[in-house]
Amino acid sequence: MENSISGIAIYNESATEERLEFVWYRTEENVPLKELNILIEKIIAKKWHNGDKISKHLEKMEFEEFDNTTKENILDELLKVDIKMVDDGEETDSYFVHH
User: Fold this and answer.
1) pTM for the structure as a whole
2) Which end of the chain is more exposed for a tag (fewer CB within 10 A), N or C?
3) C-beta of residue 4 within 8 angstroms of C-beta of residue 24
4) Boundaries of domain holding 70
């Protein structure tokens, strides 16, 4: 698909049948901020998440890499990411990060 990223997410390596096909549509106008990668890497490294749920209070997250205004903009962008789930070749629902 043009302007999209698709794949299969496997949640448990010992139970590979539990998987989710997905497609994420991207255009030049809505490419995420580059700081979003920093935020995602830190959330993962600090274990501030549980699957698609951010478990640490957002206002308590601290980042040396950018100020609070930038942090709020990036968190807002992360929560707006809309990834379509695909079941039997059909787009069904959307996958979001939430808190």
Assistant:
1) 0.68
2) N
3) yes
4) 4-95
Structure tokens given for 53: 């749920």
Residue 16 DSSP class: T
Domain count, the chain: 1
Distance CA 33, CA 31 (A): 7
Give the C-alpha separation, 66 to 69, whole Å.
8
R_g of the chain, CA atoms, integer Å: 15
| Residue 27 φ/ψ region, left for φ over 0, alpha for ψ in the -120 to 50 degree band, beta for the rest | beta
Torsion angle of C-alpha atoms 89, 92, 96, 99, degrees rounded to 10: -140
25-64 pLDDT, tens per residue?
Answer: 876 666 667 788 888 888 888 888 887 788 767 677 778 8
